[in-house]
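During the first year of the project, the team set up a workflow for recording each protein of interest as an amino acid sequence followed immediately by a discrete structure-token representation. This format lets reviewers and collaborators read both layers of information side by side without switching files. As required by the reporting guidelines, we include two representative entries from the current panel. The first entry is reproduced here exactly as it appears in our internal archive.
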Amino acid sequence: MRDQAAKAANYDLFANHTISVTPEVLPIEDQALPDLNELYRMFDIYNRQYFDGQLPNVIILWSKRMLAAGAYYIQKKEIRLSVKYHQIFPDEVYDTLKHEMIHILHPRHDAPFKEIALRIGASVRANAHPSLRRPPKYLYYCPDCRTEYPRSKRFRMASCGRCSKGRYDERYKLKLER
């Protein structure tokens, strides 16, 4: 009974209201990130200007979940740009687009990738920001010196780098705190 009343109240919140969502334009305080049409337009310009029009057409999307600046997915022929990253660094949208365009030709940050990045003025690495890091799932500590080792993945066998001098040593095996 109470659930039905709550549902009715929630439905009433949206009754007679039109909700318009424009997925291409994403607000940032006083600015907006470029819409997808603008990104495709810039892709075409950069493709002609820097790659002699040789890059294939790709899908370009904004991602609300991604924490990295961007990514190129080879199998999907898709460039994704991070909303969160570019809300913090809005001036880097086109730099990230150029960076991901280079990945169409060179999946890794190898020497040819870096040569093209230098030639077209694209950065090789994105900026770091504390809000773009996932909190570690695990916290390990050394039983001897109490040095903490936050990690995203579980260790099977690891010892303190300070105490064990770079080699695994059972005496300094890291303990899981959480």
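The second entry, processed by the same pipeline in the following quarter, appears below.
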Amino acid sequence: MVVTKRFFTPRNNGEQTIIIFANSIKNSGSCVAGKCIKTGKWIRLVNCEKGSALPNYKTRVFNIKKREKWPLKILQKVGFYVSKHVPLENHQPENYTILDRGLFDNYRIFPQDLNYYLDNPTDLWGYGDSINYTDIKEKNIIINQSLYLINVEDLVLYYKEYNGKLRRRAAFMYNGLNYDFSVTDREFDKILNNNKEIQLTRGILCISLGEPFNNHSYKLVASIIL
């Protein structure tokens, strides 16, 4: 299976603006990603060349008009200055580090505008909830895009107990295929609001291909937009 799409390479030190579609939990920091307002291409903001998460303090957004910072939000337009393109060779080509000037607020889009930014892959890197990383390294599977914003049907958000802990999960149908992924959206608990499960007709999800773990790259629901 080959996923083909060209990626935008911004100029070094150039100012860019993206619409935030993911601000999810990653280790003790945040996985932040969005689409460039000029090109529609994905950009994931990382802290170093190894693709580590942004520390949470780096995700606070400066509002020039009010001269204060506040938490990063989904659908927000965020400006920043690119430092370097630092793709993870096999599975995350969209990664960029940013200069220490931080993030600044450029207003936002509205939920009714989301259809303009949706991706339409045939499938989500095949079937199942992960990809064997050996297949990626040996180029049996080529990953040219590790982020998707998709409209899904039959969405079920639920908790699943595993090794004594409650795990956040999302089951859904996309393009006639059923999927069930882990969820890293930091708003998940708030969405369920003490319910064990929520069933929805449809929703918009940001799907991310995670870093290798036990020789697998797991597919994650990075954000849920209802």
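For the second entry, the following points were noted during internal review. DSSP finds two helices and 14 strands in the chain. Confidence is low (pLDDT under 50) at residues 1-13. Both points are flagged for discussion at the upcoming steering committee meeting.
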